[in-house]
Amino acid sequence: MFDRLFPIPKHSLDYNGQLDSLRGVAVLLVILFHIYPKEFSFGYVGVDIFFVLSGYLITGIIISRIETGNFSFLEFYRNRIRRIFPAMIIVLLASMIAGYIFLFPKELELFSKHLKSSFLFYQNITLINEAGYWDEASIKKPLLHFWSLSIEEQFYLFWPLILVIFAKIDRSWTTKLIILFFVLFSISLIGIQDSFYGSLSRFWELSFGGLVYIYSKSDILKNRNFSIPAVIIFISGISLAYGNSEYSYIKTFFIVVATGILILSFNGTKNVIFDSKLLLFFGLISYPLYLWHYVIIGYLHIFGFDVPSIGIWIALISIFLSYLTYRFIEVYSRSQQSYYFAGALLLTAIFLVFVSHYIHKTRGLNQREHIKNITNANFDRAPMQDSNATSIIEKIVGKNTNISQMRANTKNLKEPFFMIIGDSHAYSSYDAIALEFKKTRYKVFCISNNSIPPLIASEDDINDKVDKKNKTILNIIESVKPKKVIWISRGEIYASGNKFLLNSNNKNNENYKIRNFYEHLEKTFRYFDKKNITLYFVLENPEMGFAPEDCLKRPLLNSPINLKCSIPKSLHLKRQEKFIYNVNKIASQYKNIKIIDTQNIFCDSNVCYAKKNGELLYFDDNHLNLAGAKLQATEIARQIFTNDK
């Protein structure tokens, strides 16, 4: 009965059901962690178990073929495609369709980037440049979990070649694999890449699995029953990870070694736990289950569901979809020996890569009929550069401007003008300010750089990239000689390094050494004051800490996730009040530095709003959209021109 419901495909190695049961344990740990992260905080080690298992099995497949003289690179990669691609294509295609229906353009644009990197197996590299694994932002990424599959596939690219080269030298595998393991482990400790997502930080785990395969062939272990101590060590390794919220090499090393010992105990002796049919079932469907479960969880997070409260349903739906994928997709595809079949799978994946690229290129298919009326007015972004500003700047610094955003509504700076400097917040505000200032005699010229405040600092305090960008801005200021400058940027994040979450440990803006922020802000204020340039320093608008998309109704869903679309004003003040106090204190020393506070147009006495009078004010959790920027521009103009009268 079990064999009919759960047929086991032909394997390249002698089949050992206990290994599949271990897969079952690994995937259950991961699922429990993703559904109940507080209660099962140790569950992330399931991925480390997968790495060791994969290294063990793939090394066994390659070496057994080499030793019989039957190894073929072409056959090896054909088999990898048969094994990996069918379920992956089904899951990614389903997630793509869901994204087309439900995601707003900005979300779909990011999702398509993840889709492409998942198909091409570099999702871990993509994620290195985004939020960390334990960060709040990561839970809304349905393809987050493809990072581990990417690392495995990258490992498979070079591992067969290494083993073939080793075989050319001689067939004594142990010494060479031990040396290679320690080389890879040492590389991971050096910290060349991100310790969690980095391929070079993880390859040692897979290579350790290869070492375990070599030792599993030793006659010393045959028919020796040490399953009980192996299970105890394994459980101890898992329990060490309880309560973890960051990557630990020591804990990872322990679970990797414990997994290796457990695999060595699967030597033909009985094991009450790992001979379980239930664990075998989860092991057989472990690959599609791993793929399906987090796509579902990621979308539910986006839709605002409380995942733990519906965890049982998530698990049941994931298991059902995984069984169907295993029974009717995987079993069939793994029985196909044809290279044409593997080629068709590869071409399908390549086609979907181009589809993903197209989605990204069209900014998340922002003209979809069912969604464009909801989103375009709220999330449209202006050009980052225009010919007016380019013409002005290139005359000063040449073609290589080294500036992220440059905008101007005039080419002639002999007319009275305001100069806007800052980070991406300045760029977000430019169009509204230019529109508002049309009511006056002033033109507007804006230059800004993403995530870099235009501070005057010494080369010792900032890296080369930031130093060059800020020197370029200083050069432009010296050349155009503005009389009035408006500074618009984020503030608190540069001063403290913290994201919106007040207890976050993630240091976001690594471009700038934040410990010196106030010192260099004072230098900057002193520079403008000595030059007799009036600097209007605009205090940051309230940061919301949630995606503004949550305030909009999604297609096919009944209501917005966030009906209030606001935060308590006390939360805004808790985050910003120290920054506001320090900036005002420094500014008070200089007559030409004027502070502009626009928070009252976004906040009343109790609440700060991301949506007012039915109109969304934010592009994301901290940037204003055009509607929000218009409110801000009106208040900036009022304070400037009222005070200047």
From TrEMBL:
The domain of life is: Bacteria
| UniProt key word Metal-binding | no
Q: Which GO terms describe its biological process?
A: lipopolysaccharide biosynthetic process
**Gene3D superfamilies, A to Z:** SGNH hydrolase
An annotated Gene Ontology molecular function: acyltransferase activity, transferring groups other than amino-acyl groups
Keyword vocabulary terms for this entry: Acyltransferase, Cell membrane, Membrane, Transferase, Transmembrane, Transmembrane helix
Q: What is its EC number?
A: 2.3.1.-
What InterPro entries has UniProt attached to this entry? Answer: Acyl_transf_3_dom, Acyltransferase_3, SGNH, SGNH_hydro_sf
Q: Which part of the chain is the SGNH domain?
A: 414-637
**How does it sit in the bilayer?**
Multi-pass membrane protein
| Record field: transmembrane | 42-63, 84-103, 144-166, 173-190, 249-266, 278-302, 308-326, 338-359
Q: Which GO terms describe its cellular component?
A: plasma membrane
Places the protein is found: Cell membrane
Residues forming the Acyltransferase domain are: 17-326
Q: Which residues form a coiled coil?
A: none
**For this UniProt entry, which residues form the secretion signal?**
none
Name by which UniProt lists this protein: Acyltransferase 3
Q: Which organism is it from?
A: Sulfurovum sp. enrichment culture clone C5
